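# step 3/5: fold
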Amino acid sequence: MDWTLAFGAALTTGGLFVLYGLRAQKAWRASVRRELLAYLGVVRPQWEVAGVTGDRLDLRLPGGEEVTCRLQRLVAAAGATPANDLAARHALFAAWLGVLEEHVRSLALDAERDLPRLRPRLVPAAFVAAQEGRAALPCADLGAGDLRVVFVLDGRESVRYLNAEALAELGLDVARALALARENLRDSLPQSTVREVVDGGAERRVAVGDTYDAARVLVVGEHLAVGERVVARIPDRDTLVLSPWPDDGNFGPASQGAGAAGDRDPLCATPLAVSALGITAAAGSRTG
């Protein structure tokens, strides 16, 4: 017998078994995630599933909170139950839900701790209109386009959208929240970026990737002197493109730097503003 061929055949057969095992495990984990989502849909129908990526589950709660859950341990524990024992998995889901709700209840707001975490977020007007009841979001009008500014608390893994009750708990109304959110975001847009557009005539794309790139349009004017203007385009949440003000005042079509709709990252592909916005110096901005 050719032992080389026999050994190779054994490796191939073993590899097939490993591949089959990995596929079966992946399918089982996906099945457990589907069961969890179905369970939540029954026992917490008011919770919105904002996203599912692998073993990560993003939830949006009625009060506006966004919670990110890591499901590795839960899925592993549920995966150890017999396939036909749905009751056992429901018991695990219930225990997990109890821990999660206890965590959510611990998220009481504290002005000293939370005000530095306040950030603005740009969303389509339709997004605001879709939030009802306690989940309704106070917002400010951007002043151009079909965009609104809502307020979130920035977190390491997620953000919490602030409803009217939460803003009041922090001692804020919309005007004060907007001023503070802009102040908290101001230092994240370097003045040099804006000056390269104004003084150098260059187009600059801001894409830090922290989910606040579009919102940085709110602080561009603070880096402009009186009489200076730039053009801003905001194709999605994670992109801000700044261009020199055209001599003829015609913004024209969105520039190539803003990206076509089909080229956007699907994770942040919700269009915000297709048309361009004219940005002028803000009150209290630099004077030269």
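# step 4/5: annotate
The chain is about 40% helix and 20% strand.
# step 5/5: archive (pending)
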